[in-house]
Amino acid sequence: MKPVGEVLRYKADSALVSVTPMTTVLEAVMLMAEKGIGSLLVMEGEKMVGILSERDYVRRVALFERSALGTTVGEVMTVDVVTVSPTDGTQYCMQLMTDKRLRHLPVVENGELVGLLSIGDLVKHVIQEQESLIKHLESYIRGE
C-alpha cells in the first residue's frame, strides 16, 4: 500500500480548514456543517494546538447541555492530537485509526502540518487499489 503522502496528493479537496482556540463552538460547528467536514484543525498562527471533531462537540458540549455560543473551541478540543507522517503507510494509518477510534489524522512533516486524512480518504484509496488489482488479475487470467 502507498504512503499517505500519495493519498493526500489525490484528495479532491485538500484545503485545510481551521479555527483558533478562541472561536466559539457554535461558529466551529456551523463551519463544519457548511464545509461538510467532521473536524477542524485548531491553530495558533502556524502551530496546530488541537483538533475539534463532531464527537468532541457531542461528548463535551451537547451531552452536558453547555452553550455552544458561550463555549470556546479551546475549552473542548482534543489537545493530544495523534499525527502521522507522509511516509507512513495507509495500512498503518487505518490500524491506528481503528485502535484509537479516530476518524481524522493530521499529517505532519518536519514539524509542519501538510494535510489531514479522514477515514473516508483511506477507504476510498483502498477501494481504488483493490479495483486496480482485480483488473490486473483478470487481465492475467485472460492471458493479456
UniProtKB/TrEMBL annotation:
Residues 12-69, 77-132 form the CBS domain. Transmembrane segments: none annotated. Pfam families: CBS. Keywords: CBS domain. CDD domains: CBS_pair_bac_euk. Signal peptide: none annotated. The keyword Hydrolase does not apply. This is CBS domain-containing protein. It comes from Pseudomonas pohangensis.
